[in-house]
Amino acid sequence: MLIGIDVGGTTTDAVLVEGGRVFRSAYVPTDHDNLLGCLLSALDKLTEGVSPYKIERVVLSTTLITNMIAEGKTDPVALVLIPGPGANPKDYHLGQDVFILDGAIDYRGREIQKLNESQVKSTALELGNIGFKKIAVVGKFGQRNHVHELKAGEIVASVVPGVQVELGHRVSGQLNFPRRAATTRLTVATKDRYREFADQINAALKNRKISAPVFILKADGGTLPLDKSVNMPVETIFSGPAASIMGVMALMPTTQTSVVVDIGGTTTDLALILSGKPLLSSKGARVNSLLTHVRAFAVKSVAIGGDSAVSVNGDCIAVGPHREGPALCMGGPCPTPTDALRVLGMSDIGDAAAAEKAMADIAKRLCCTPKEVAQKVIDAVVDKIVSHVNEMFREWEQEPAYRVWEIVKKEKLLAQNVVGVGGAAQPLVPLVAQMLGAKAVIPEYAPVANAIGAAVARPTLTLNLRIDTERGEYIVAEEGLTGRADRKNMNLEQAEQMARKLMNERANKMGIGEYANEAEVTYSEIFNMVRGWSTVGRLLDVRMEIPAGIIPAWGRC
Questions:
Q1: CB of 260 closer than 8 Å to CB of 320
Q2: In this structure, which topology does domain 78-189 adopt according to CATH?
Q3: Tens digit of pLDDT for each residue in 14-48?
Q4: How far apart, in Å, are the Cα atoms of 488 and each of 233, 290, 341, 500?
Q5: Sequence-ordered strand ranges (E) for 120-266
Q6: What does pTM read for this prediction?
Q7: Domain 255-455 belongs to what architecture?
Q8: With 0-12 CB in 10 A as exposed, 13-18 as middle and 19+ as buried, what is 520?
């Protein structure tokens, strides 16, 4: 048996999967002040009467990190940068509390300016006097030579008692200094609260005698063992939209190209699957105004859902963007699209009389019938979703993977299939698809597709290997791992073999070694370094990925 639990903006959905089928589902209202309680309440409903020893896997999709950042509840962090020459750190727009140190590493990892250690000490004293207990130290090209980050971190830790220091090369080894800085700051800002959450989950499962491995769903649709995820909490941001995409992948044919429309109570999430492969954002996850190195699907959340508040502005109806609670027909405080669907006979959820009253109150102000008001509300919802789908297509067109798909397929991508999931998908997605001139698809189990997506998503992992044969060194970007590479004339095939070996080692370290054979080479390049008339070395870059996918257990009948 497999368990998937997805914490949504309105409800927390859970499924128990057995033999490739949904054995049981459950849901509870989401309390954003008590996410742990929501998870455990859904879990207890799901497992009532089920032996804990039958459970083989538990996967959680949580809004914990998303909420912490959105609500400004992260810990204050000082960002200490070692940018080197050639750029003005103020142009990075990394927010407040940014401190600059002198020193420089070049793009190949060579020290071209020594770290100013006295400046590091004085900056650390300043940070201590201000009261910072969390500090992120990030050097430009620090992932290719850690010496400055390590020394600065060591000095800061010795000067500021009890400080927690996070180093950029340990968070991300990818190029793009501002994104690595943003990712490092967010990591240290959320790590303690996330670790507390993980410990509470593990304790709660132990109390319930559930000893199955526990995973968390990441923004790229992959899972990671919960105990390993505590070092990279920001990778769990936007796991809700990722869950809906994985749910569609589990419920639809593997070669399908689909626009995914996940209509929940609070938001509608939009995504794209190209020939069975979800479209990833080439720029990483955007957190508020910051771009990060967090791998994430190219998704968009629209502030409209089944419980969006309906209001009247003059003679016009407005839907959302806020939610004041459940629909009136469900005992809530104000009219919503859910009430409108009930009045139009498109849903049987809630009390019909309460829904009628919700629309009648608005109808009096607009001098029309409750049904006419209900139709206006639904039209407004559909128009907004369609508008955002069209806007997303313009954004998707800028993604390299999207352009490659069109070149390979020799066709222009249109919204041919609109796949609806979420509680409000059944009545609304056919209307959205009709306006887009597309086919509407509502798969079986659509209301709990997100929880299914979490339950059956396999782990993902990325490894970026850079080899500098002139210097005789290699580095694994994701871990800041370095080692010797002594073959001066190494070719791409040999570099890819080394990358695969290192990927196997990393996957085993992460506790997901059984999936290492799924890894694919997604990028490789070789550059000869010539001095005079001779080749003095080579730079080789290889990227390997275990891509998003579904575990084999879901295919069992």
A1: no
A2: Rossmann fold (3.40.50)
A3: 999 998 889 999 988 888 788 888 889 999 999 99
A4: 39, 40, 69, 20
A5: 134-139, 164-167, 214-217, 223-225, 258-263
A6: 0.86
A7: 2-Layer Sandwich (3.30)
A8: exposed
pLDDT in tens, 328-339: 999 989 999 999
- Among residues 301, 242, 251, which one has the least CA distance to residue 276? 251
Q: Which of 2, 63, 4 is nearest to 30 (CA)?
A: 63
pLDDT band for 92, please (50, 70, 90 cuts): confident
Nearest to 292 by CA among 443, 152, 189: 189
Neighbours of 183 (CB within 10 A): 28
For residue 294, is pLDDT > 70? yes
Q: Which residue has the tokens 């800041």?
A: 480
- Within 457-541, residue ranges assigned H as helices are 492-509
Look up the CATH number of domain 2-71+193-244.
3.30.420.40
Kindly report, residue by residue over 222-270, the tens digit of the pLDDT: 999 999 999 889 998 888 889 999 999 998 877 777 899 999 888 888 9
User: What ranges do the domains of the chain cover?
Assistant: 2-71+193-244, 78-189, 255-455, 461-555
